[in-house]
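Retro notes - structure team

What went well: the batch runner handled both jobs without manual restarts.
What didn't: labels got mixed up in the shared folder, which is why I'm recording both outputs here explicitly, each with its sequence directly above its tokens.

Job 1
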Amino acid sequence: MHCFKCIAVVTLCLTLAGCGTLPWPLFKKTDDTLYLQPSSFDRIQNWSTDNQSEAIAPLQKSCALILKKDPAAEMGVDGFAGTAGQWQEVCNKLSTYLLPTDNDARQFFQDNFIPYEVRGARGREGLFTGYYEPTLHGSRGKHGKFRIPIYGRPHDLISVSLGDFKPLLKGETIMGRVQDKKLVPYYKRAEIEKGALKKQRREIAWVDNAVDAFFLHIQGSGQIVLDNHRTLHVGYAAENGQPYMAIGQELIRRGALTKDNVSMQSIREWLEQHPEDASDVMNLNTSYIFFSKLADQEGPLGAEGVPLTPRRSIAVDRKKIPYGVPLWLEAEEPDNDGCLQLLMIAQDTGGAITGSVRGDFFWGAGEEAEHKAGLMKSRGHSWLLLPKSVTVPKEKLYQPLWMSLQW
């Protein structure tokens, strides 16, 4: 009986803890299966103080794609989030909201959704980082200082959905190319940097700074101010399928940075101050991103295929969370003692975004966005909002240890 009492106390502490004060769970799962714990809006701290009307427009963008789906299509890798038809019912109601007040928007979400707290391998707490839309300087042709290529999707890049061959691998995708009638892994970053794609002539633009290009790959989209004074918007088109490596880990291993001071700013500073080593370090991240030219629009294009909204769009692990799902985030605010508590929409993904309780917060464009994104390494947790008509499968529901123990 004393053990159960201790567990109950820990559970209560986890429930009441505020932003940035959450202890690591007493009991940790060894896998990172996504589990959901039913909750309610009155249990979400500061739910009533957010400007939820700002989440309506990005949700409408996602709904425009959801409404085109087969109503029987599953939402999520294993359909835990229901069917497209169930979401279409909610999306159709949303179409009537043109200029909602915060109270209108809040009531819409409360009337149509149930919040579920997300839990993964480390309980309900995870890592939330930030990204932004960088600005580079370049040209449409290679000349002078503009010698770093920004590539479009190569002609020989092949994407394979493994679930089409084995149902157990549903949601898994590999990228490759055909060589001697066999599918082999696609070129690594170092091979591409050495000219593996030169003959394909897939250059969208040429920029003047290799470090800027590297960070464009990490962010996934950006603006290139051309030498003719026009601006070229580029967005994620594909990737080479090679493993992503955070080079900050290597710089910590070398003693160049520490866990306390590693950030996008400190990594960039080190690369710029060590040009003789920068290329080799950047090539340790074998992942490589290919881009497409975008029309002028209100924001960069996320992987879902809709323009991203600053402070309302979030990148998630697509193997865990489907696009278009509203997500309430509670996380430490970078460079501040405050707390991010706001409603976001899952509209993007990234090579480093893996895990059930993991996300990348889109800050927008500009110096402040770059500053916030570069510093953000926040502990936090989240709730998914699912339509009330969705019945979450029993195997996806979180069951506290004290409830699962058998006498």
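Job 2
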Amino acid sequence: MKKSLFLLAALATLAWTGCRKIESDGEIQVVVVNGGGGGGTAQGQTITLQGRISADTLLRKQNTYILKGLVYMVNNATMTIEPGTVIKGSYSGTDVAALIITRGAKIRAEGTATDPIVFTSASPNPQSGDWGGIVICGKAPVNTSFNGVANTFQVEGGVDNANGDGLAGGTDAADNSGSLKFVRIEYAGYAYQPDKEINSLTLAAVGSGTTIENIQVSYAKDDAYEWFGGTVNCKFLIAYKTLDDDFDTDNGYSGKVQFGLVIRDSLLADISRSQAFESDNNSSGTTATPKTSPIFSNITAIGPRATLNNIGNSLFRGGAHIRRNTAMSLFNSIILGWPIGIELDGTTGSSTALNVEDSSLRLRNITLAGNTINTRFAGTAGATITNDAAFATWFTNPFYGNDLLLNVSDARLVQPYNYAAPDPTPFAGSNGNIRINTGGGFTDPKFNGDTFFDKTITFRGGIAPAGPLTSWWKGWTKF
């Protein structure tokens, strides 16, 4: 018999003495098990979510939710999550948990600075990779096809099924998949197959009508954030102790990201070579459109090396690996303590150097500090960027406002390598660093007509030396 999921809110307030299944159209959607604390009247219920959820669903703070296997929001339904709610991903053998928001469905997870929403591991001893993560599939453009259908992407990680619940893409650049605000995602990431992983937060063809703000991803087994196409804009993103890449952009992603913080653990790196940024137009580096062309601004990417003599895990690669014909741009940022600061790579597909020379790829107002090698070039040459030296000459042209500092300490951040209590804030005032406090800017033509970026600021990196933007990363986060 059909039972509406709208009953969930009422059922959650009752004292349960047994197990109940709520079904819809013959599919088990929600399983409620015994709650703790006198039947759950005080502490709420433990509720397991599984299968395909096809009706609007409310997750309440008073309950604890367990994701079992791949859980799909389908049928244009919306999952609404109250501030302070905890959702835990389980893992049993190959039955890895993940939450997939399918095309047309929505998630509205809006925590607050004092009451964030937490997605974490169900294990009593949580570890990186305990569950899959969150996948949002939208209807915005991608530069891929699937089964002969253009503007379609099959999400990695084995999340697709016979219903096509793992497909993303379309032609609606303004598509709205809901909102994530003040959300922590912990211990996620699952390698279904080599190079086919579920990331902590996968944004597949997500449109600009979607809101992504104040997100912390911690202990990601694969990438912290990966965008496959789409146009979604994001602010205030944190990647803490990621294994692989922090910000990975592919397949025509053209959104904007401002204010980000990357903190790596010097011992944790992936066999695929870990970096803060990895960007490709696609895996073959072709000229497929729409071209990958995101704009990142005000990112502080703290790598594994507190000093030049620190080596850490040998699998770290660099702060930014810009490759395979991408036109990603980076402004007003700090990259410190990496084996390589910025690597421009055109070894696969079309020349990435040509994107620099035609100004579709921009690198301006960037401070590289304490990197073993500041810049590296590989692959097909452009007209002027032909080798390492030529790229270094281009990068240090005064017009672009980029700076090179020998040591991490020269950037004069408070304590970026205190893993127990990190603080990436620049010292305020005349602190002796080169333009970190005052060397940001938004005069580049890439910002013409833009209404997303906060262009009133003048600092580099994700954290302000003074004012309200010094503390956006505090309070709702966990380090």
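One thing worth noting from job 2: The radius of gyration is 22 Å.
We'll revisit the folder naming next retro.
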